[in-house]
């Protein structure tokens, strides 16, 4: 179960509108999850479906990150966007990916970070900005609750709380608490989004 010292809040942001489709696209041998359409995003497989949510396993992946401390999320996103636009040691330009992760630690604000996913074929080009860093994240299991509509942060927090209660009722262990505003819309003018909240799982992966 979740302990107060391990509580972390994640806000997952899709900066650019992404169409929802059942289609899956491959890039560089990587099978793109359908929800991302042509936007590159971390690969996962569904371990188990429950009523109202599912348990996913995300594969190991590379991310580029910067601290949110003393900055706002827009400034951090701009810094990471500059990296993606070629401000790295190799001068590689990387197409925008999703999701963008804003990770908030409820214990220590200095640990708050913003992360962009890096496609597997580009690795992690060394950043030229010393406030930007590469991080390899190992395989991670995540409980995911999806819902539609255009909602604010409070609604996402409520959905994360509801998911935590559902997991508690099923006696499913999880480490930390995460809520997300990962949004995918049908077009750039739509006000209706596909959304997800995440809770980091600790259930044995062979179940």
Account of the protein in words:
By secondary structure, this protein is an alpha+beta fold. The protein has one domain: Regulatory factor, effector binding domain (Multidrug-efflux Transporter 1 Regulator Bmrr, Chain A, Alpha-Beta Barrel). The chain is built from two helices and twelve strands, in the order E-E-E-E-E-E-H-E-E-E-E-H-E-E. Strands 1-7-8-6-9 form a five-stranded antiparallel beta sheet. Strands 4-5-10-12-11 form a five-stranded antiparallel beta sheet, covered by helices on one side. Strand 4 (44-50) and strand 5 (53-58) form a beta hairpin. The longest helix has 17 residues, at 153-169. The relative contact order is 0.23. The model is unreliable at 1-30 (pLDDT under 50).
List the keywords:
alpha+beta, Multidrug-efflux Transporter 1 Regulator Bmrr, Chain A, five-stranded antiparallel sheet, disordered N terminus
Shape: globular
Mean pLDDT: 76
One letter per element, helices H and strands E, the order comes to EEEEEEHEEEEHEE
Radius of gyration: 17 Å
Q: What's the arrangement of strands in the largest beta sheet? A: 1-7-8-6-9
How big a fraction of the residues is strand? 25-35%
How is the secondary structure organized here?
Elements: E1 8-13, E2 25-27, E3 30-32, E4 44-50, E5 53-58, E6 61-67, H1 73-84, E7 100-105, E8 113-118, E9 132-137, E10 140-148, H2 153-169, E11 182-185, E12 193-200
Antiparallel strand pairs: 1-7, 2-3, 4-5, 5-10, 6-8, 6-9, 7-8, 10-12, 11-12
Short description:
By secondary structure, the chain is α+β, with helices and mostly antiparallel strands. It has 2 helices and 12 strands, in the order ββββββαββββαββ.
């Amino acid at each position: 179960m979740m302990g107060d010292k391990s509580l972390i809040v994640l806000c997952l942001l899709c900066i650019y509108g992404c169409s929802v489709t059942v289609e899956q696209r491959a890039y560089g041998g990587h099978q793109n999850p359908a929800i991302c359409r042509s936007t590159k995003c971390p690969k996962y497989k569904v371990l188990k479906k429950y009523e109202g949510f599912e348990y996913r396993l995300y594969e190991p992946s590379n991310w580029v990150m910067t601290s949110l401390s003393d900055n706002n999320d827009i400034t951090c996103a701009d810094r990471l966007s500059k990296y993606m636009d070629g401000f790295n040691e190799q001068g590689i330009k990387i197409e925008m990916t999703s999701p963008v992760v804003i990770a908030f630690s409820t214990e220590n604000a200095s640990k708050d970070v913003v992360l962009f996913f890096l496609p597997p074929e580009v690795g992690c080009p060394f950043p030229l900005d010393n406030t930007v860093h590469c991080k390899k994240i190992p395989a991670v299991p995540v409980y995911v609750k999806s819902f539609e509509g255009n909602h604010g942060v409070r609604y996402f927090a409520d959905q994360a709380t509801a998911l935590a209660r559902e997991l508690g009722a099923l006696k499913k262990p999880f480490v930390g608490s995460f809520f997300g505003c990962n949004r995918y819309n049908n077009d750039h003018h739509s006000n209706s989004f596909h959304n997800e909240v995440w809770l980091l799982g600790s259930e044995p992966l062979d179940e």
